[in-house]
Amino acid sequence: MSISTTGSAESPATDLGFLLHKHPGKVQRFATSHGEAHVFYPEAEDEVCTAALLLDVDPIALVRKGRGDGRGRGGSPDFALAQYVNDRPYAASSLLAVALRTVFRSAMKGDCPARPELPGRIRPLRIELPAVPANGAGEEGGPALVARLFEPLGWQVEATAIPLDEAFPEWGESRYVRLVLASGTVRLADALQQLYVLLPVLDGAKHYWVAPDEVDKLLVAGQGWLAAHPERALIARRYLSRRWSLARAAMERLELARLAEADDREVEEIDNAVDDRPEKEHGTEEPGTARTGEPGAASSGDGTGRALEQPREPSLAERRRTAILAALRETGAARIADLGCGQGELIGELLKDARFTAILGVDVSARALRVASRKLGLERLPERQAARVALVQGALTYTDARLKGFDAAVLCEVIEHLDLPRLPALEYVVFGAAHPRAVVVTTPNAEYNVRWESLPAGAVRHADHRFEWSRAEFRAWAGKVAAAYGYAVELRPVGPEDAEVGAPTQLALFTTTAPTTTAPATTETTETATTPATATTPATPEGGEPR
Q: What is the pLDDT along the chain (547 residues), one digit of tens a residue?
């Protein structure tokens, strides 16, 4: 492989030597686990500088180590070429990707202590690889695959198929291409990281066993570009040698990174639906609630001085689920989308009722979805029962075709976790684009917070709540949304109702009045009719608020 750049007297091309940490006046040799790597400069002038990496693969050593023989784990599938005669010494395969990391480790990280200003600069780059395996048929291989991988990253791609034998053109093309990449918009460190990932993807057959730590390597090397790549699923699948469990884990983490970047937030901020404390420490009630579900509940005696055990009252979370199920049954809905499903408590209740034939759980948190799958025991359910449920990762502020076609959608304790400027986007995604026949929304009643003895005055119930609405504020929002998207709305209390401050949870049941009515696609950051009570210094009782 060769890397070339151009320059001038003010910014000489030989700065490439500083970036690669390899002096243009020397030929250097490096030992790798499968041969020797040589770095040298065919040309090194102020105007043009080219660095070459030559990997001298020892195919006999590969066989002796049990790698690349087609019979060991992760070996090349080409059985006929997999022993002492193979393509590894001649083609830029996954072996070259490992050599890149060995030889240019500091350059890939963007480290340059001698000239710290250089790594951040964008230089014109030209990368040539004389023979690259591009395995696959049609767009899954050959020049078409190369273009799909590199063009979205800003490269101008020349991928020329190499004939099997130039003397016999009728034999057709081989699986190898001559590859030339040119770009003036990519940093050298990014270019090396992209090659480190995409060369094994083109190869399609890694020379070593793909372990779970390969997911971490993929995500580290793909930071900043892979999450937004349109072919990220293909890249993850081929890079991980089609180990589906690893590819699925990689895609979950990539999707989370993409959603976090789109919202200009850290991954940890949106992947917070699962408490990291041991499960036995998790709170099961709202703040200040006794185990009976009522503040200050106490046991009574039987006249002998012995306390009688009182029947346990349902918790507020259980009351919420009961109220949601009742509303769904009223609508006659069979296909339900639980939006912001968390750890799947509502889905578990839906599964108990055979009238709900299809259940979709959506959450932005990959951790929450894994916990939901484990708690629901989806892998242990009978095939017919498990087929009713699908768990997918997604953000509710972006239109998603997967949300269409459901009879009803549920937003259980979800809207208060969004920043107010993002709420109109959710409204359009759920009520406008998906537009189910019914939508059930629950959210805390801020007025009831004064009844929680352990909740400091002015605080919200959970540290992640961006707001909590009074009954009037929720009524105004629900009416506005219903009018905008062609719904009628009914408000209901959930939980023990207080004559002064109402119930702890408020529920809105939206039902369509005009099935085809949708509002214009907009994500304007208009405020709701009233200003909700926001938390400037959240103080959350231990255990938080369960869904």
A: 999 999 988 889 999 999 999 999 999 999 887 889 999 999 999 999 999 999 998 777 666 665 444 444 444 444 444 566 677 788 888 889 989 999 999 999 999 998 999 999 899 999 999 999 987 766 677 899 999 999 999 999 999 999 999 899 899 889 899 999 999 888 999 999 999 999 989 987 665 567 677 788 888 888 888 888 899 888 888 888 767 667 677 776 666 666 555 555 555 555 555 544 333 333 334 553 333 333 333 334 444 544 455 667 888 999 999 999 999 999 999 999 999 998 899 999 999 999 999 999 999 887 888 889 888 988 888 888 888 999 998 888 888 899 999 999 999 999 998 889 889 999 999 999 999 999 999 999 999 999 887 778 778 888 888 899 999 999 999 999 999 999 999 999 999 999 999 999 999 999 997 644 444 444 333 333 333 343 333 333 333 343 4
Hey, how many other C-beta atoms are within 10 angstroms of the C-beta on 488? 11
Tell me if 288 sits within 8 A of 452, measured CB to CB: yes
Residue 329 and residue 335 in contact, taking contact as beta carbons nearer than 8 Å:
no
C-alpha pair distances (Å), 39 with each of 84, 250, 303, 433: 26, 33, 92, 55
How many whole angstroms separate alpha carbon 124 and alpha carbon 502? 66
Residue pair 53/191 in contact (Cβ under 8 Å)? The answer is: no
Regarding pTM above 0.85, the answer is no
What is the rounded CA–CA span in Å between residue 437 and residue 487? Answer: 9
